[in-house]
Amino acid sequence: MSTLVEVETGSHVYGTRPLVALAGNPNTGKSTLFNRWTGSQSRVGNYPGVTVDLMRGEARLADHDVVDIIDIPGTYSLLARSAEELLAVDHLLGLSGHRRPDVVVVCVDATNLLRNLYLVLQMQELALNVVVALTMVDELDDASLHLGELSARIGCPVVPVSVPRGRGLSELGEAVDRALASAEGSERFVWEPTDSLAADIAMVRKALPSAWPATRGLALWALMSWDDESETVPPGLRDTLAKTHVPGTEVDDEVIGARYAFLDRELGQLVAHPPDRTKTRAIDRVLIHPIYGFGVFVATMLVLFQALFAWADPAIALIEDFFAATAHVLAARLPESAWSELLVEGVIGGVGSVVVFLPQILMLFFMIGLMEDSGYMARVAYLMDRIMRALGLHGRAFVPMLSGFACAIPAIMATRTMERRRDRILTMMVVPLMTCSARLPVYTLLIAALFPATALLGVLPVQGLLMVAMYGFSVMMALASAFVLSKTVLPAPPTPLLLELPPYRLPRLRDVARMMWTRTRFFLTDAGGVILVCSLILWVLLSFPRTEPLSRDYDSAIEQAATAEQRSELAAERAGERLRSSYAGRLGHVLEPIVAPLGFDWKIGVGLIGAFAAREVFVATMGVVYSAGDDVDEESATLRERMRAARRADGRPVYTPLTGLSLMVFFALACQCMSTLAVVKRETNGFRWPLFLFAYMTLLAWVCSFLVYQGGRVLGFG
């Protein structure tokens, strides 16, 4: 095995080992091939825009000991417009400090040959060393493939593979090995430019930066890409490009037309029997129908959200009982001390209150994974395009928004698939309004604690309907906010949606399970670490200072109490007074005038403060708060029961259905996730948009929660 020697290239570290790049159109199997070669667990799915970042790994291919492999985001063309296309171009051409790959393996969908080979022609014009991995061959008859003729006509090796079944991978590795041993790729043009375009290419070629290869292909690429939003084309070259004689649209028409003319003329008959899409078209007549399709989508969402609440509840109850019993046993056996209270109330009460909702989060990821892998997610984006455009959003924005049901962070990163910066920013501003999995524990806790498990009209479960209503409310508010922002802060004319509808395929359960495990591991490690730290900090704030004098000598009063009931009441009164005098209690009382109009008491105010680190922390905070200030019977060990039993000073219950609804509305709209703000800052390269996002969502949450609570009281629901 060769020794890895690290060298610095720009701001990126690379090894001296051969570098192989995986490229291709979206949804052609790149990430699946990357996973098989490297043993990685990058996300795969059956819709465009899954890989929105660059994956790195290493693999052993044929005669080489180890090669470095990068999985480049899918792109239909090297004329970069979207952020992920710019990333692909930089890595393929060796720009912006990146190392140019030694070999590019282009994944080409055999069922859509001509469109996929357009990208291969572009790479050959840029002198890239190309090997074609022909994917999706299982959907074609063997007799319909003319591999030898195809390889000869496009001038590079073509290897058929079935990545999910592991077929053809060794042959592909051998082809890559031969390409690595051969000379670097050379320019290959299959068309000739007009005299005017040829003169412009020659002028641009002379003006290319000294660090760039002075090739005709790179000059043509710069000529066609110089008006993009990136800084890939330097200012000096832009000045030369502005002096060219042929307008940009005419260049596009001539070059693109010439490439497709070659593909139609030379390669159009190489797939004699295209795959039968009769079943796909028949299903699409229903699923993308403006009426029937929308009905199917609503029904799918109803099943999803009912599953999140009803089907996962038995597992939640088991985990909840386990943590409650663990806390009870530890409290009974450990000696009374600050450390034992920290363990029982801070760790068990805080983290355990969130971990119990893991079954729901797993089920959410499972259902979304099935939608992505089957190809249905792309249909949903197409179906919603008309509504999205009417509200000022690009139709492609619905895929990140729907992904926001799982987590806003990858959803915001998925906006890189959109071409216009304005569309990306507008989508980022509304994605955090979608009900992510972090809000799910809060909704589940409040719905289960405050709303009866009855059925409306004897059929529809009230709790499940309320969960569906909260998700629907988040979608409506996201769309309404997008409409307002598109007319005020980010106005721009709408652009048409161009979206590939992939064929329906059976979901690969292994890939779905891998995605579930990755997300769960993130929840338990990254999010769980934040929750643990916040829980410990909150326990300290809720438990200290302990030197503050109490209003009476509770220890003596408890010893003199005649009955166990009196002793329990005195102990609860002592815990409540200590909680009110703690650091967190004082902070909660300072915040109480602001949240009181929303129906919240100071304890909820403490929870809202903790939730700004991460929404899940609210549940952990409530677990710590009601453990530290336990004013109910010890047998009422679960957090739900503690919240139901909580009372205000005048004896009124703290939590009523109206209070719970107001609190859920606040959580649906408030931007209580520091990680989301950090990702928005990174994606927009500044603090302007994350600060705006935080301000407008917090204000919107307070106003809507105020209207719900005060309006409910006026209507007599208080």
Placed side by side, the strands forming the largest sheet appear as: 4-5-3-6-7-8
What fraction of residues sit in β-strands?
A: 5-15%
Report the uncertain regions. 1-14, 43-51, 629-637
Bin the helical content: 55-70%
Radius of gyration: 30 Å
How many helices in DSSP terms?
31
Q: Mean pLDDT score, rounded?
A: 78
Taking the alpha carbons of the first and last residues, their distance comes to 73 Å
Say how many strands there are: 10
* SS-based class: alpha/beta
Verbal overview:
By secondary structure, this protein is of the alpha/beta class. The strands form three sheets. The chain has a six-stranded mixed β-sheet, sandwiched between helices. The chain has a two-stranded antiparallel sheet with strand order 1-2. The longest helix is centred in the C-terminal third of the chain and has 35 residues, at 509-543. The radius of gyration is 30 Å and the shape is elongated. The model is unreliable at 1-14, 43-51 and 629-637 (pLDDT under 50). Among the domains are: 1-274, Rossmann fold (3-Layer(aba) Sandwich); 530-655, no CATH class.
